[in-house]
From TrEMBL:
It comes from the Bacteria. It comes from Sphingobacterium corticibacter. InterPro entries: DUF4394. The lineage of its organism: Bacteria, Pseudomonadati, Bacteroidota, Sphingobacteriia, Sphingobacteriales. Residues 65-284 form the DUF4394 domain. This is DUF4394 domain-containing protein.
Length: 288
């Protein structure tokens, strides 16, 4: 090897080593970035999820009526304080009536209300509280569209039918059964239109983290649909849009209240939007 060839070979070796060192540093930097992203606050990552362009109404634990667009529930579209209820009363659940489209609510004073969705003003239905009264603060509250009655189920297994015109208990139905220690706190009927002739009632059980069909509803029998696919600590609202395209629930997972889409065939819950701006007690899609 000539001196020139030896010098050239030395330069090439140094260049190759430099390239390898640079590549190793780049890969290490990339790996660090991936690890940093993976270990970053899940809340910020989750909040990048954009949901469908559909509006719904919700209530929180402080008697606020909130209008959201599912595209981003970090921020509300509009918010009102609910007025016209009994002193110190808590609104426990809401739903839109398929007939006429009014927003209904049930309160802790055992009263049914209609709520003006433009102002938050509540008007009691009937003159006296219904009996038997609601036996829990976590409830499922939804209209049966085929008979125009309200289904009220509770975390303690209560199963009532309420009359939307008089505010009284139409029937005391059989307690929820078929699942040991079930804690049902959210309920939703299908086919939410005024001309519906058939409907099914689905409920979410916080204890087993599962979706059930309550069939028949009046007997309170819980038939398993499937696992939600996660451990939830609360189900604060569950509803199905009138066109059947949106099946949504507010679920608390790892301390965060988020909007989920529920598969009625499998029971699986899938994140549908960002985290809610506050804990949600109930939600409802307008029926008209």
């Amino acid at each position: 090897m000539t001196p020139i060839e030896k010098h050239t070979n030395t330069i090439n070796n140094k260049t190759t080593m430099k390239k390898r060192t640079t590549l190793s540093m780049a890969l290490a930097s990339l790996a660090g970035a991936v690890i940093t992203t993976s270990c970053s606050d899940d809340n910020s990552v989750d909040n990048d999820i954009m949901g469908p362009n559909v509006e719904f109404y919700a209530i929180d634990g402080d008697n606020h009526l909130i209008r959201y667009n599912a595209q981003n529930v970090r921020n509300s579209v509009q918010e009102w304080t609910i007025t016209g209820t009994e002193s110190n009363e808590k609104i426990l659940g809401i739903d839109f009536r398929p007939v006429g489209g009014e927003l209904y609510a049930v309160g802790s004073s055992n009263r049914i209300y209609t709520i003006n969705k433009e102002t938050g003003a509540a008007t009691a239905v009937g003159l006296v509280p219904f009996t038997p009264g609601v036996d829990a603060t976590e409830v499922g509250f939804d209209f049966n569209p085929t008979v125009d009655r309200i289904r009220l189920v509770t975390a303690n297994g209560q199963n009532l039918r309420l009359h939307p015109e008089t505010g009284v208990v139409a029937f005391v139905d059989g307690e929820l059964n078929g699942v040991a220690n079930a804690k049902v706190t959210a309920a939703a009927y299908t086919n939410n239109t005024s001309d519906a002739t058939t409907t099914d009632l689905y409920v979410i059980d916080v204890t087993t983290n599962r979706l059930y069909k309550q069939s028949p509803p009046n007997d309170g029998v819980l038939e398993l649909v499937g696992d939600l696919g996660m451990n939830i600590t609360a189900a604060g609202g569950f509803d199905i849009s009138a066109d059947g395209q949106h099946i949504m629930a507010s679920l608390e997972v790892d301390g965060r209240h988020s909007l989920y889409s529920i598969n009625l065939e499998t029971g699986k819950a899938t994140r549908a939007s960002s985290n809610f701006s506050k804990p949600i007690m109930g939600l409802a899609f307008p029926t008209m």
